[in-house]
Fold:
Amino acid sequence: LWGTDLGLLHEKLYLLIPSRVGELLDRRGIHRIHAAGLAIDHNALLCMLPSGGGKTTMALAALSLPGVRLMSDDTPLVTRDGRVLPFPIRIGMLHPPEGIDPRHLRRFERQEHGEKWLIDIDAFGDRIAREPARPHSIILGNRLLQGEARIVPVPRHRAMGELMRSMVVGVGLPQLVEYFLRGDVSDAVSKARLVASRTAACTALLYRSRVYRFDMSRDPRKNREVLQDFIGGMTR
Structure:
């Protein structure tokens, strides 16, 4: 990969490397999911919030709780039998984070979406998960125009659409278009197998998890508190 614009090169590599790594993992039956992943006493919590819903900020705030480890702020991994694996890559935020040593920060300008700040995982020390976790809870974000934030249980099937979108289709994942558009017959067969494998992992994850709806208020602080209370309940 070559270019004269270092910022543009950084952005393309930022997309290219996770895309290629994701392709290799797919071949092994290990699939990325677009969600924030936390490990709480070896149980996995996946937060699937709408774009701009603050999942990274809430996930980082949750690290202050005992027994909580970060699996990935954006792309934890799921195996065909539904286990959740850590995938700790640099954490991306739209605004400069507070309380992070500048040595662990990198800023770069994206072509279409403006600046982004990356936090190296070394900034969090032992708060990064290193081991697989049992699937426990899937949280589906729901923005409210008015009303109080809360997390309530819902039937499992309510999560199927978002799981298909975020893991089987891969919306939100660093995944280059040519991954799916190479055009020959053998590649079409390979992608059919990939869809089947991702769907199997999705189904296993859902079967082994409880599903909740997170009604998110317009108060980010209150949303963080509600999620922290929910996580506290998992540790009791």
